[in-house]
Amino acid sequence: LQGYASEMDNPNLVHLIPSSLQNKKEILFGNLPEIYEFHNRHVGAAVVLRPRVLLIFLKEIENCIENPELLARCFLKRKEDLQIYEKYCQNKPRSEALWRQCGDSIFFQECQRKLDHKLSLDAYLLKPVQRITKYQLLLKEMLKCSKNSEGTAELEEALATVLDIIKSVNDSMHQIAITGYEGDVSELGKLLMQGSFNVWTDHKKGHNKVKDLARFKPMQRHLFLYAKMLLFCKKREENTDGHEKTASYSFKNSLKMSTVGITENVKGDNKKFEIWYNGREEVYIIQASSVELKNTWISEIRKVLT
């Protein structure tokens, strides 16, 4: 934030900023200032961006060295605050796309030289994503050492909280890649689950040919389960400028959760379940990759339906 973001407002360097980066600071850095503030919250706004400022969240964790059973409380009382990592990760694909366009510019080279950093900015922009996963590793290690001792229950709750945030981050990263859906996904309620399945369809009205063919060859579909809607998408992978493949999800159809029914077991395959619509006028046979995954989805769908 000091060596790069602030330097974008430095009049001596403004001529080095590439045109593709103009007025896009918030895309490149996302809500990194908000994450920084979270770790600095009680220090006061006047010292934001001052080097080596006291990090409050870190300090709280360090205070647990003598009383490790108190560690979980640091996470539990900041349950809501930690959601800022989800916001950061949602923006990460946009940030990376922008970096690919302008990361080799003289402006960034000059900033890196002044900081005497061996790594370029993109390595540091990855840190918040890595940090949220390191929290869960810390809590897992703590749990290994604290079986049936004071604070174990709180540690388990804290770990569940962090894992839930990581799941939300992962789900939201997929959600932003949905294309072709004409509505607003933010109006569909919370994204509860997402994942890839084999899907067969069976329609009572017409489509007889399709019905016969569909019995044999499944469609590959990526499902997004929201509180109000179930979306069926087709996953597409595209190469981006010679870099790693990025997935997008092309919208195919949707079912309102208020009008669907579910059959938990399909004869002949314990990994399959059915979702049907309008009194079984449309039936979707869905095959999960494992019985465990199938049961998790059924459980979530049941919660929505009830």
Automatic annotation (TrEMBL):
Keywords: Guanine-nucleotide releasing factor, Phosphoprotein. It comes from the Eukaryota. One of its GO terms (molecular function) is guanyl-nucleotide exchange factor activity. Residues 184-306 form the PH domain. Transmembrane segments: none annotated. The keyword Glycoprotein does not apply. One of its GO terms (cellular component) is cytoplasm. SUPFAM superfamilies: DBL homology domain (DH-domain), PH domain-like. The keyword Transcription does not apply. PROSITE patterns: DH_1 (PS00741), DH_2 (PS50010), PH_DOMAIN (PS50003). Residues 1-172 form the DH domain. SMART domains: PH, RhoGEF. One of its GO terms (biological process) is intracellular signal transduction. This is MCF2L factor. The lineage of its organism: Eukaryota, Metazoa, Chordata, Craniata, Vertebrata. The gene is Mcf2l_0.
